[in-house]
Specification:
about 130 residues, mainly beta, 4-stranded antiparallel sheet, about 50% strand
Length: about 130
């Protein structure tokens, strides 16, 4: 099993920045692709970004391209998401996800990932 714990969420003004972290523990040697998803109240969980095991491949939702940057430090078993120019409509709970499945693509589906964190709240005020 792999345990994921997110941190770094909070309240930020529109246009501001936050960096989320996700610490992995347990059978971390089995983890391959990792990703961030978000879920706003009353909405489905949606893909934000994903990164391959070595970081050589990344993917972003169109809505965050150019503003968000995903990265990982395998030595620290930690995933990051730097979010710039945040918008009020990006208020949501942000979840970290991981899979031990091989291959990177496609990384956008919720069902692709068997491990999930509890989420961290991000609130963007206007």
């Amino acid at each position: 099993q792999v345990q994921l714990v997110e941190s770094g969420g909070g309240l930020v003004q529109a246009g501001g920045s936050l960096r989320l972290s996700c610490a992995a523990s347990g059978r971390t040697f089995s983890v391959n692709t990792m990703a961030w998803f978000r879920q706003a109240p009353g909405q489905e969980r949606e893909f934000v970004s994903a990164i391959s095991w070595r970081g050589g491949s990344t993917e972003y939702a169109d809505s965050v391209k150019g503003r968000f940057t995903i990265s990982r430090d395998n030595a620290k078993n930690t995933l990051y998401l730097l979010m710039n120019s945040l918008k009020p409509e990006e208020t949501a709970v942000y979840y970290c996800a991981a899979t031990s499945g091989l291959g990177f693509s496609p990384p956008t589906g919720v069902g692709r990932y068997e491990y999930w964190g509890q989420g961290t709240q991000v609130t963007v005020s206007s």
